[in-house]
Amino acid sequence: MITKRIIPCLDVRNGRVVKGTNFQGLRDVSSPVELGRFYSDCGADELVFYDITASAEGRKLFTEVLTEVARTIFIPLTVGGGINTLDDFDRVLKCGADKVSVNSGAIKDPMLISDAAKRYGSQCVVLSADVKRVGEGYRVFAKGGREDTGLDAIEWVRRGVDLGAGEVVLNSIDTDGVKNGFDLQMLKDVCGSLNVPVIASGGAGCVEDFVELFKALPFVDAGLAASIFHYGEVSISDLKKLLNSESIPAREV
Amino acid sequence: MISIVDYGVGNLFSLKSSFDAIGEEAIVTGDPEVIRSSDKIVLPGVGAFRDAIAKLSSSGLGDVVISEAKSGKPLLGICLGMQLLLDKSYEFGEYEGLGLVPGVVRPLEGYIPEGLKIPQMGWNALQLKGSCPVFADTKNGEHVYFVHSYWCDCPEKYVSAVCEYGAEVTAAVMNGNVYGCQFHPEKSGPVGLRILKAFCKEL
């Protein structure tokens, strides 16, 4: 049986992990290579590296560090942040990324999704959407959740999949950082009828939140989180053990 | 020395890196002479069957791989590279494969129950069949990483591992010195590296 995936997300600025802290036995918690290896050894099913660098120099450092990660860690790597063109796809894929996640870049130019899917295959194109409740509906936000695009989230995500996105990450702005559980209602309303893998993001505060997510929403394939893993509030191996004991298939190492 | 056949599809960085990590010399190459002089061959592949087989035949590398495999050189096809080993594929039409492993490539759609997502993307448990040298250091039930929308429908005697995805899906094949795995060993953590190492040790 295919297992539910647990995915830590690492924010990288100028080639260094932001927010990486609180790990025993790690010499350098801001090294993407060290932290990546730590997570890989703990049983992370995939790693997401999110480049939050603004400068060209920082971007160069990111690609260097990504190459080093890909050389030493043998699980799927997804890269996001600053992906606006096919050249950006090319740049990170050449460094060893397996999947590329698009967000604001696809909102600006939705054809980026179809062009990338045609060139690299749908399995390579991840649509990441930051979504927030506005009035009665769900709205897509751009620029790290700062800008209301006016796009309806249900329509946008469906369009992205039609254009060729092979996977969707839904990040709830409403629950992000609240640590009171994933946004089950939003996930169900926005992603409930998709035929591609869905990754839930935003709101996980403890291991039980993942159990609740996978039990309540069988269509969700993976749970993504950042700070609860980085600060050691949730250990991936404990989480996997709990999932298996609750009859949710998970890969233990 | 292992040659990783470069015929212009996909990124071979991870594959090369994983051989580096297990201390095996591997070269990414599209040079027939280098492939002929290597001890073992890895045939990678991502994307569509028809594009890959077209590139293999126009470059002449398909014939090189066939003749080397027929002369007894160990060959490992990975993901689409495994599908290329079969007789034919029904992906976007009907295309001849390399014919090194009996069987045909069929869509998962219509084979697995409706409601399951396609591609199968993620970690699934291996159920080993018989004794394949590539799995000499792999335990039954260990997880490996899959990404695929088509599957290899082969006679049972050539199937060396399966996984369960609503139905029994071929995870690996073997025909003499020719091996294939549907999953990505280079993305399957320590389990995957052990599989590559076992291939390197074989023969």
The quaternary organization reads as heterodimer
CATH architecture of chain B: 3-Layer(aba) Sandwich
Q: How many whole angstroms does the radius of gyration of chain A measure?
A: 17 Å
Main sheet properties of chain A: 8 strands, parallel, barrel
**Which series of helices and strands of chain B comes N to C?**
EHEHEHHEHEEEEEEEEEEH
Shape of chain B: globular
What is the residue-averaged pLDDT of chain A?
Answer: 93
Q: Can you tell me the CATH class of chain B?
A: Alpha Beta
Low-pLDDT sequence parts of chain B: none
Sequence of secondary-structure elements of chain A: EEHEHEHEHHEEEHEHEHEHH
What is the CATH H-level superfamily of the domain at 5-127 and 201-245 in chain A? Aldolase class I
Name of the CATH architecture of the domain at 5-127 and 201-245 in chain A: Alpha-Beta Barrel
Instruction: For the record, give the distance between the C-alpha atoms at the N and C termini of chain B, rounded to a whole number.
Output: 13 Å
Q: What is the name of the CATH superfamily of chain B?
A: Class I glutamine amidotransferase (GATase) domain
Q: How many structural units, i.e. domains of chain B?
A: 1
Chains forming the largest contact? A-B, 29 and 32 residues
Q: What is the molecular shape of chain A?
A: globular
